[in-house]
Amino acid sequence: MASQTSPKQGADHPENTPDANVESGVEQTFPASDPVAFTTSQGSRAERPEAMMNAAGSKPAPCDDGVTLSMRFPDSETAKLALEAAVREGPIDRRSASIDLDDDRVTMRLEVPRADRERLDGLLKKHGAMEA
User: Fold this and answer.
1) Which residues are bridge partners to 73 per DSSP?
2) Which of 10, 25, 102, 103 would be a feasible disulfide site paired with 17, CB 3.0-4.6 Å?
3) Helix or strand or coil: residue 81?
């Protein structure tokens, strides 16, 4: 009679991992929705980061009614923080913006839909932008 061996719990399949082991793997982690991986065969994310990222040098699709917003900033750090705010609060695609450093001028150019121009202009001014 041939004996059957059961696979090691959790070796290849997370569904076979005891709940206590899963809980110990997510304690003290953030965010809880993205726990650390507990197997070597599977990562902790549903998608690989490369699959979620845009190709290097790519630009977003141009919008039909897009306008260019040009703003001047006192320094590059302020411009970077304003861009982060626009990405979070806009929301805008980071690839639609460029920050140019010319001698003592820092200028941000941002391609935005015409309907969002005033709102994003106000947002950038709130974060230190001035008219270019």
Assistant:
1) 106
2) 10
3) helix
